[in-house]
Amino acid sequence: MNTHLALEFAQTDILNHLVALDAAELDALDFGVIGMGADTVVRDYNALESKFAGLSKERVIGHPLFTVVAPCMNNFMVAQRFEDAAAAGAALDTTLDYVLTLRMRPVKVQLRLLAEPGSERRFVLVNRRL
């Protein structure tokens, strides 16, 4: 069994593992994964997030996360934190309670925002098991 598949939402070193996963391994995780570049264009979108958000991978990958895919995250709580961390050259690893509202009834989730200075990959993890 691949050890990557045992990743937990709250795992401290998860960013290093996420960047090494392929699409099938991301699909095996039990939380939503949205991976993007520094330009916020979505590059990774796992099956669980697709199922719960009701958006196909084809509709999401290749599009800007905060303006096209999930404008409900285009605010100071989510998008601005990525911008602030990048501007400061600082790591970002924060978990927050959030309510997703786009294309669905409001859903309480936990979001985990992950970024490292100099890394092209950034992630929003979505935990719906509250």
Write out key terms for the chains shown:
28% helix, 25% strand, Beta-Lactamase, globular, 130 residues, alpha+beta, 5 strands
Map the helices and strands:
Elements: H1 14-18, H2 23-27, E1 32-36, E2 42-45, H3 47-53, H4 57-60, H5 65-69, H6 79-88, E3 92-100, E4 107-115, E5 122-127
Antiparallel strand pairs: 1-2, 1-5, 3-4, 4-5
Describe this structure in words.
With 130 residues, the chain is of the alpha+beta class. The protein has a single domain (15-127), classed as Beta-Lactamase (2-Layer Sandwich). Helices cover 28% and strands 25% of the residues. It contains 6 helices and 5 strands; from the N terminus they run H-H-E-E-H-H-H-H-E-E-E. Strands 2-1-5-4-3 form a 5-stranded antiparallel β-sheet. A hairpin with a 6-residue loop joins strand 4 (107-115) and strand 5 (122-127). The N and C termini lie far apart (27 Å). The mean pLDDT is 92.
Summary, kept brief:
This protein has 130 residues and is an alpha+beta fold.
Q: What is the distance, rounded to the nearest whole angstrom, between the alpha carbons of the first and last residues?
A: 27 Å
Number of helices: 6
Beta-strand percent range: 25-35%
Q: Determine the CATH topology.
A: Beta-Lactamase
Please give the CATH architecture.
Answer: 2-Layer Sandwich
> Multimeric state of these chains?
single chain
Overall, the morphology is: globular
